[in-house]
Amino acid sequence: MGMTIAEKMLAAHSGHDTVVPGQLIECATDWVLCHEITTPAALRMLEERGMDRVFDPQKIVAVPDHSVPAMNIKAAKMYQKLKSWVQEKGIEHFYDVGRGGIAHVVLENTGLMKPGQTLVSGDSHTCNAGALGAFATGVGSTDLAGAIYAGKVWFKVPETMLIRVTGQTNPGVTPKDIVLEVIKRIGADGANYMVMEWVGDYIDNLDMEGRFTLTNMAIEAGGKTGIVAVDDITRAYMQQRGVSPEQYTEYQSDPDAKYKVVVEIDAAQVEPTVAYPHIPSNGRVAGSDRIAVTHAYVGSCTNGRISDLRDVARILRGRKIAENVQMIVVPATQAIWKQAAQEGLLEIFVDAGASVSYPSCGACLGMHSGVLGPDDVCISSSNRNFVGRMGDPSAQIYLASPATVAASAVEGYIADPRRYDAEGNDRNAAD
């Protein structure tokens, strides 16, 4: 019996010729990604047990991103703990405040993480890196501690869901709409502990930023990770970061690989989609209900990339945000912030009445820099709309693409972005 991409990578990293779903394996980790929220707890576990070591300081990437710049003393202490550990252990890859941004987006752009490698982090959206043809997943602080100490983690080999997306999207429809449509169809636990493997001619023609959006949200369907196989688009992306094909291993699923379930999506039938409160699977067509919004948020590890900001700028250019709406735009990294400034995007946002913030996860999980108050209604390009996710438990969060967020900010109601996108949607095509 053939194996899937994920099974091949897990077999290679656990010393097996083959693995099967349900098999328990001890898997070597090529990389461990650390930030200031979950890492300090893992470090305390190691210190309390006299196991205060790092398996390889060159294989750890540290990026403070959740509560930085620190909004209170507790946050400052967590940041200090991460930074002092980095300095003490000689962690080579440290992207400090002002030099990094949101960890997953920072990592994807470094060239450190390569196809065929494994990655763990104490963050559920670690699956983001699966777009590179890698096995990347979030773990709890205990497993994170083990990975830091030994460079290994125990996994139960997951089953795989094949998601085949064919055709091309219509103007105004983006990768975020595709993944929200998939989650709507399969449910919030439809891929429970599965790998979500994306294939089809839509994927073949999708740029890397769109692929990252798809794999980033695997966890919102209960998935263990998301994966896109390496192709010429991946190779070009890696080459741009100084990484040649000789430096990594490509894996492809065998023709006779076994899948738990196959999902078929016709991209031409997908419409701009909004996930209603309080779960990402509660998807409906954008603008199908007249729902007033008080806040609009563009950012996060899901949709804070330069192509997302261009989508927003295309809609906001020459327009004003509705008076009742507070809009925050958060470029995902310092590099993206700088590029957006050079392209004149930040000026468009400010002229429209939006606030442009520094790269962080703060507003996405209701920690700082945009916390929602009682009964606020936010349309967000982030990945979760759980009760209390972005602030007060009574606040309502609607998930959508950056284009839908921008259109809604202009109109003051959840809006269909297609009326602003008559000129076409260039997010589908790879550069």
UniProtKB/TrEMBL annotation:
Q: Does the keyword Amino-acid biosynthesis apply?
A: yes
Q: Does the keyword Nucleotide-binding apply?
A: no
User: What EC number(s) does the entry state?
Assistant: 4.2.1.33
What cofactor requirement does the entry state? [4Fe-4S] cluster
| GO BP terms in the entry | L-leucine biosynthetic process
Q: Which CDD domains match?
A: IPMI
Q: Which UniProt keywords apply?
A: 4Fe-4S, Amino-acid biosynthesis, Branched-chain amino acid biosynthesis, Iron, Iron-sulfur, Leucine biosynthesis, Lyase, Metal-binding
Q: In which pathway does it act?
A: Amino-acid biosynthesis; L-leucine biosynthesis; L-leucine from 3-methyl-2-oxobutanoate: step 2/4
Q: Where is the Aconitase/3-isopropylmalate dehydratase large subunit alpha/beta/alpha domain?
A: 24-282, 290-412
| Domain of life assignment | Bacteria
Enumerate the InterPro entries for this protein: Acnase/IPM_dHydase_lsu_aba_1/3, Acoase/IPM_deHydtase_lsu_aba, Aconitase_4Fe-4S_BS, Aconitase_4Fe-4S_dom, HAcnase/IPMdehydase_lsu_prok, Homoacnase/IPMdehydase_lsu, IPM_dehydratase_rel_enz, IPMI_cat
Task: One Pfam family, please name it.
Answer: Aconitase
Sample GO molecular function, one term = 3-isopropylmalate dehydratase activity
Q: Reaction(s) catalyzed by this protein? A: (2R,3S)-3-isopropylmalate = (2S)-2-isopropylmalate
Give me the residues that bind [4Fe-4S] cluster, please: 301, 361, 364
The free-text cofactor remark is: Binds 1 [4Fe-4S] cluster per subunit.
Its assembly, as annotated, is: Heterodimer of LeuC and LeuD.
Q: Output the PANTHER family linked to this UniProt entry.
A: 3-ISOPROPYLMALATE DEHYDRATASE LARGE SUBUNIT 2, HOMOACONITASE, MITOCHONDRIAL-RELATED
Q: What does this protein do?
A: Catalyzes the isomerization between 2-isopropylmalate and 3-isopropylmalate, via the formation of 2-isopropylmaleate.
Which family does the record claim for this protein?
Belongs to the aconitase/IPM isomerase family. LeuC type 2 subfamily.
| Name by which UniProt lists this protein | 3-isopropylmalate dehydratase large subunit
Organism of origin: Deinococcus wulumuqiensis
What gene, per UniProt, encodes this protein?
A: leuC2
